[in-house]
């Protein structure tokens, strides 16, 4: 089994101690940081595959920390998960808008974190030997890269998986429930507004190439890839 590098960011190490102990018993590499500056040093040495944000020190809110961390990770790599109190839907949406790939409820279930760490590529798309195309969009599943013509489109792991779902189902209406499942969640664990947030992030990433309008909203139902 491939060892996963996991970075835990929390001002109280004991709060995530059970998850850290379980990960280390499973031979994963766990490092800890209390704030952004400590995390920045760790990431500059070697980027982790999974970052778990708990209750960080310093003046940054969780969503601001997500925004600061995402540019530090290689394009298309690194999964950011934020632990939040139950019912913090607006905060969850802001975290997803700013770079998080998923949110989970406190208290953190150590076995949930272990499963995420041991998922293929720690939540990244499983690579296959083919290329997906739609109009000017090209997704190479071997290199995990997306291009619009000759222009590179930089996507995080969640946006990559979301776009892959659209590319595998072009001109087909996809409900929010179907998109939730495609991202590896259950309908009960993810607020549907969070899907809208992820779609906004995907559109923003595609906007510089002039392709944001390819993701079409289907009122009251979901979205579809159309218009190439």
Per-chain topology:
Elements (H helix, E strand, L loop, with lengths): L4 E5 L7 H9 L3 E5 L2 H10 L4 E4 L8 H8 L9 E6 L4 H9 L4 E4 L4 H9 L12 E4 L2 E4 L4 E4 L2 E3 L3 H12 L5 E2 H7 L9 H15 L8 E4 L3 E4 L3
Parallel strand pairs: 1-2, 1-3, 3-4, 4-5
Antiparallel strand pairs: 6-7, 7-8, 8-9, 10-12, 11-12
Helix pairs in contact: 1-5, 3-4, 4-8, 6-8
Explain the overall architecture.
The chain folds into two domains: 5-123, Response regulator (Rossmann fold), CATH 3.40.50.2300; 131-225, Winged helix-like DNA-binding domain superfamily/Winged helix DNA-binding domain (Arc Repressor Mutant, subunit A), CATH 1.10.10.10. The longest helix is centred in the C-terminal third of the chain and has 15 residues, at 192-206. The strands form three sheets. Strands 2-1-3-4-5 form a five-stranded parallel β-sheet, sandwiched between helices. With 228 residues, it is of the alpha/beta class. The model is unreliable at 120-129 (pLDDT under 50). It is globular and about 50 Å long. Helix 1 packs across helix 5, helix 4 (89-97) runs parallel beside helix 8 (192-206) and helix 6 crosses helix 8. The protein has helices at residues 17-25, 36-45, 62-69, 89-97, 110-118, 157-168, 176-182, 192-206, and strands at residues 5-9, 29-33, 50-53, 79-84, 102-105, 131-134, 137-140, 145-148, 151-153, 174-175, 215-218, 222-225. It is built from eight helices and twelve strands. The N and C termini lie far apart (41 Å). Strand 8 and strand 9 form a beta hairpin.
């Amino acid at each position: 089994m491939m060892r996963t590098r996991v970075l835990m960011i929390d001002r109280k190490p004991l709060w995530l101690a059970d998850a850290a102990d379980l990960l280390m018993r499973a031979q994963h590499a766990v490092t800890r940081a209390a704030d952004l500056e400590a995390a920045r040093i760790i990431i500059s040495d070697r980027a982790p595959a999974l970052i778990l944000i708990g209750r960080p020190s310093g003046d940054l809110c969780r969503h601001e920390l997500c925004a600061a961390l995402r540019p530090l990770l290689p394009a298309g790599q690194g999964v950011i998960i934020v632990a939040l109190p139950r019912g913090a839907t607006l905060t969850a949406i802001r975290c997803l808008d700013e770079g998080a790939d998923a949110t989970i409820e406190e208290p953190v279930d150590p076995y949930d974190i272990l499963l995420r760490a041991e998922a293929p590529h720690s939540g990244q798309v499983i690579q296959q030997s083919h290329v997906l195309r739609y109009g000017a969009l090209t997704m190479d599943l071997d290199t995990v890269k997306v291009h619009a013509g000759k222009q590179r489109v930089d996507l995080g792991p969640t946006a990559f998986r979301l776009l892959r779902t659209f590319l595998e189902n072009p001109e087909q209406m996809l409900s929010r429930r179907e998109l939730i499942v495609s991202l590896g969640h259950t309908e009960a664990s993810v607020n549907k507004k969070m899907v809208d947030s992820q779609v906004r992030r995907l559109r923003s990433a595609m906007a510089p190439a002039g392709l944001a309008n390819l993701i079409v909203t289907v009122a009251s139902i979901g979205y579809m890839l159309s218009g190439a």
